[in-house]
Write a structure and sequence with these properties.
Blueprint: H1 2-19, E1 29-30, E2 33-34, E3 43-55, E4 67-79, E5 82-86, H2 106-111, E6 122-124, H3 130-133, E7 143-146, H4 148-157, H5 162-170, E8 174-176, E9 181-184, E10 187-191, E11 200-207, E12 210-214, H6 222-226, H7 239-254, E13 258-260, E14 272-275, E15 278-280
Parallel strand pairs: 5-6, 6-7, 7-8, 12-13
Antiparallel strand pairs: 1-2, 3-4, 3-15, 4-5, 9-10, 10-11, 11-12, 14-15
The protein binds zinc ion (ZN).
InterPro entries: MBL_superfamily_lactonases, Metallo-B-lactamas, RibonucZ/Hydroxyglut_hydro
Organism: Leptospira neocaledonica
Family: Belongs to the metallo-beta-lactamase superfamily.
Length: about 280
């Protein structure tokens, strides 16, 4: 009888262990020891979608000829369980104006860091152009902060995501920004209205020694932004709004704020690449 009970116990033990799933992540095992799962820390990240070349006359008020390499970036802020995107990148390799080289879809890049599309709770759209807004349909739960002007422009110009935009409106997931708005403490959306009619920028004062200004496309190159040099009339909705904002950028920059843009390849050297194409910049 004792032998029978022993055999049943052994059988149950093996059945029990074999039926439970074996969680294994080979990349996390080093010489037999299991490391804790690597997670994205709280902070600010620049995310690289791809690269291309773009005419200088559209990125700088002082240079008329030639073209320069630009990168396509958007930003992620992680604060505990809160995930905020500043722009979304685009969900296709090309838009009407430009083809993005080495493009990877934004949801795939975020996925490599364990961030699923449904985890993105908020998106701040700096302006409606498709290289900034084209990924909006990838994030079903996100509330969108956008100016009414650029929301209308987005609906008119980006027909591929139009039905998703209408669904966002119906489910009350669009917050229209009509004036400067504090999204959370010391994190503000600023109306700029230079690049497009409803373009915005983002200012985040994390602490006295850690301050960021994300310019959208009001300027492209960090070094020129710091000097208050923005866009040509060809690349603006309002040259005077653009100039006014760039004056503000140069004042903030001289008092220690870190200026971040959406297309300057130098951004990638500001921080460590903690996951493929995800750079920690704070
Ligand atoms: Zn852009």
């Amino acid at each position: 009888m004792k032998i029978f009970i022993l055999m049943v116990s052994i059988l149950l033990f093996y059945c029990g262990t074999s039926s439970s799933p074996k969680v294994k992540n080979p990349s996390l095992e080093i010489s037999g020891s299991k490391l804790p799962l690597r997670e994205l820390q709280d902070g600010l990240y620049a995310i690289l979608l791809g690269k291309s070349f773009y005419p200088n006359r559209l990125t700088n008020s002082d240079i008329r000829d030639g073209e320069s390499e630009i990168v396509f970036l958007f930003y992620l802020i992680k604060l505990e369980k809160r995930y905020i995107l500043i722009d979304t990148g685009t969900s296709s390799i090309s838009n009407p104006d430009i083809t993005i080289h080495n493009w990877i879809s934004p949801d795939k890049i975020l996925g490599s860091a364990g961030i699923k599309p449904g985890m993105i709770g908020e998106i701040i759209l700096t302006h409606f152009h498709s290289d900034h807004s084209g990924g909006i349909g990838l994030f079903p739960n996100a509330k969108i902060y956008v100016t009414p002007e650029d929301w209308d422009a987005l609906k008119k110009t980006n027909r591929s995501v139009n039905s998703k935009l209408v669904a966002k409106e119906r489910s009350k997931k669009v917050q229209f920004v009509n004036s400067s708005l504090e999204v959370f403490q010391n994190f503000r959306i600023l109306l700029t209205g230079g690049h497009t009619q409803g373009s915005i920028a983002v200012e985040w004062l994390v602490s006295s020694g850690k301050k960021f200004l994300i310019t959208g496309d009001e300027c492209y190159w960090i070094e020129f932004c710091k000097q208050g040099q923005g866009l040509s009339s060809e690349a603006t909705f309002s040259l005077s709004n653009n100039k006014e904002f760039l004056d503000y950028v140069s004042v903030l920059s001289s008092s220690g704020t870190k200026v971040l843009t959406m297309h300057d390849p130098n951004i990638l050297s500001l921080g460590e690449e903690v996951f493929p194409r995800i750079y920690k910049v704070d």
